[in-house]
Each structure stands twice: as C-alpha cells, then as structure tokens.
Design goal:
Elements (H helix, E strand, L loop, with lengths): L9 E2 L6 E12 L15 E9 L5 E3 L5 H4 L12 H17 L7 E5 L8 H5 L3 E6 L2 H9 L4 E3 L4 H11 L2 E7 L8 H11 E12 L1 H7 L11 E2 L2 H9 L3 E9 L5 E8 L7 H12 L5 H27 L4 E4 L3 H10 L9 E3 L16 E3 H5 L5 E4 L5 H7 L1 H5 L3 E4 L5 E2 L1
Helix pairs in contact: 5-6
C-alpha cells in the first residue's frame, strides 16, 4: 500500500475543485465481485484511492467504477439478510409513517430500495409508495412481496417520469444509497424535482466522523464514492437550493448519520445541525491533516492484522473468515491475505457460496462449514454486526474458539 500523495490534482465530483488523495489502498477488485474459478482471469481491477476536497469538504474516491459493473442482475446483497438491519428499518419506517399520518393520500418513494425491506412497511400500511433500484434480482424479490418497484437507475429522467406517472413525493427515502452516486449533483436535482414543496428527503449513510474515529478503512471501496460529513452534505444541498433541517445519529453500520433535507426556507433547521457542524470543525473534519492521520492509522492497523494472522498460522492454528462482506475484500487484498492464511470464509448468502473472494480468491463456504468443524480463530469481517453474530455463534466461543476483530483496533475477543 502506497499512502504517498499523488502530484496531480483530481477534480472534485461535486464542486470541481482540486481533490488531494490521502489514502491509497492499491489495485483492488470489485468489493462484491465474488467469482468462480473460471472467472479469475477476467476480474476487473481499479485503483482504490480516496481524497479530500478543501473547497466543499467532500471526501471521495479518486477513481469511479461504472455503476453497471456493480449494480446488475447478480448483485449479491439483500437488505433482509441482516436481522439487525431488518429491525432498524422497521423502526425507521414506523417513525416516517407516524410523521405522515395526517397527510391525505401521501406518496413515499425510496431510492435504492433493494429487496423492499424498508418499503414493505409502507406497503403493509397501504401507503402509496414506489421503490427505485437498478439491480433486477433484488427488485424481483421486492415485486414478489407486492412492493411497487421500478427497476432502473435513479436520475433526473427517472424523477420526471415518476412525477408524470404518480405526482411529487411527500417523502423520499434512501438508506446507504446516495454515497454510491458519482453524479451526485444530477441526483440531487432529480430529488429536488421529485419532492413536493413541503416534502422531505430522509436518508442515512455511514458517518465520516465515525469512520475516522474508528479507523474503519474497510468502508472505503468501489460502491462508496462519497463519505459524508454534516459540513459536506450541507454544502452539497445548498448548491441546489435545499438545506439540511435535521440530523440524527444511528448506531448501525458502525455509526450512521440520518439526514433530513427539504427545499430551502420551508422549515427551520434544527440547532443540532449547527452544533454538529461546529463539532466537526473542532475535530478537524475540514482539514487534510485529519485524513493524513487516518491514513497512517490504517497502515498500522493493516500491518498489525497481517502480523497477527501469520503468527497464528505459524503456530499451527486454523483461521477462517466470517462474513463474505464487501469489507472483507478490502481487508484481504490490502493485507495480501490468501487461503494459506485464512482457510475459507463462512457466509450465509447462497449467491456467494461456492465462489471465491475477489482478488485473492479465498473460498466462500456455507455457515455449516464453520459450525460443523470449528476453527481455532475466526476473523470477523462483519464487525458492524458483532453483537448479532456473537449471540448467534455463542457455541463457537463455548467450544474454545476465539474471534479476531480489527475495528477500532486489532484484537482477539
């Protein structure tokens, strides 16, 4: 891994200003690009670097992968696969439903609706709704659940079509979606035209402040073009006559911020927004030096994890990975971990089982391969679901097994 700054400046995807790269994780395969052996030679790689724009304060990738390479008919992530996220979305939907109960025939749109895990609560409540998602396999699951869903990428044309067919939305929802969109200005314009004058956009994304605090570098990969602070999100929407009126921190995905956005001068913004912006300046989220420190901490964490894994293997221990997540791809390839160190990765997603991890090609096997023959150690790639996993796999610990985690620091539980 090369963390040296690159001499040439890159134009910010939001404001066009210069972006200063601060972390280089090297050549990287698609994070969710799990492959069969006969596909090894055709894998796609890109340069995974992340940079900071001092103009609009947006943290972003410096090379963007075409969305069609990522979101397609074999997209391997289903929102309903995590019990914790199912519970979170149930509560999220309940709060939104309560806020619109006085409206006459409200219309709710979700961008990036996946398999309908969030939107199904609006369908159950017989609220007029529409999901928009480009991945045909997950969209079909939503349609089978009788959730109204449109299979296409969200953009200004999509927004105009939805308005023509259904009218403007009272609420637009998005969960872990906006950071995926490289043409963010265009997407915001689409949102603006789709949202009625008194409507609200409510979206949540992993919070940049938490990523920096915990050195959770594995959240940086091809799908995540942007990494949002409150300052950068306020700057983004202000460019288009919209404003952040409220924020609420959520304890999911290792720390998530929920933003509520509306047309400018319609609502009085909460004092919490001003307070958080002030806090971000105190903690240095507006300064390149903060991100250079993060880069150093990332290098140190990767070195310590690789050293630990190789030491355990030298001592004759069996080590497996748990959770074939996108995060696992970043860790495996950044550390240079192969199947001679990690025997296999256990995962419950049928679409990933029988395939190999992107890049370094560690086999992915069903959870039963883990529970039927416990290893000495399991590296928890889905650390953001740690509590859920440890509860589910309590027998592993009872049998003498030990968990390895690497966020916020490398340690054995």
């Amino acid at each position: 891994m090369d963390s040296q700054r690159h001499p040439s400046k890159i134009a910010c995807l939001v404001c066009g200003g210069p972006v200063e790269p601060f972390l280089d994780l090297g050549r990287m395969p698609l994070a969710n690009g799990f492959v069969l052996p006969d596909e090894f030679s055709s894998e796609y790689f890109y340069d995974l670097r992340v940079g900071f724009c001092s103009g609009c304060m947006m943290v972003q990738l410096t090379e963007v992968v075409e969305p069609e390479r990522i979101f397609h008919d074999r997209y391997p992530f289903y929102s309903s696969s995590s019990a914790g996220m199912v519970k979170h979305f149930r509560k999220f939907a309940g709060e939104v439903l309560e806020s619109i109960q006085e409206k006459v025939n409200p219309f709710v749109v979700e961008i990036g609706s996946n398999d309908g895990t969030l939107l199904r609560h609006f369908a159950d409540a017989e609220v007029r709704h529409l999901g928009i998602d480009p991945s045909t396999n997950v969209v079909q699951v939503a349609i089978n659940r009788e959730i109204d869903t449109l299979c296409r990428f969200f953009n200004e044309d999509t927004a105009r079509q939805v308005v023509a067919d259904h009218g403007q939305a009272d609420v637009i929802l998005a969960a872990n979606v906006l950071r995926h969109m490289a043409d963010l200005n265009s997407k915001v314009l689409g949102i603006k035209s789709l949202l009625n004058p008194g409507g609200r956009l409510i979206f949540e994304e992993p919070y940049l402040g938490d990523i920096i605090d915990m050195a959770s570098y594995d959240q940086i990969y091809d799908e995540h073009v942007f990494y949002f602070s409150v300052i950068s999100v306020c700057n983004l929407f202000k460019r288009h006559g919209m404003e952040v009126i409220d924020i609420r921190h959520q304890n999911v995905h290792g720390g998530t911020m929920r933003f509520t956005v509306a047309h400018e001068n319609v609502y009085q913004p909460s004092w919490v927004v001003r307070l958080q912006r002030r806090y971000e300046k105190i903690t240095g989220l507006h300064e390149l030096e903060t991100y250079e420190t993060f880069s150093f901490r990332t290098e140190l964490s990767l070195a310590r994890l690789e050293e630990l894994l190789r030491d355990l293997k030298k001592k004759g221990n069996r080590v497996i990975g748990y959770g074939a997540s996108a995060k696992s791809t970043i860790v495996i390839n950044s550390c240079g971990i192969t199947s001679d160190v990690i025997e296999f990765i256990a995962d419950t997603t049928p679409e990933k089982q029988g395939k190999c991890s992107p890049g370094n090609h560690i086999p992915v096997r069903p959870r039963e391969a883990f529970t039927s023959d416990y290893p000495d150690y399991a590296l928890l790639f889905i650390w953001n679901h740690c509590e859920e996993v440890l509860k589910k796999e309590r027998d592993f610990k009872a049998a003498g097994g030990k968990w390895i985690v690497y966020v916020p620091e490398v340690r054995i539980l």
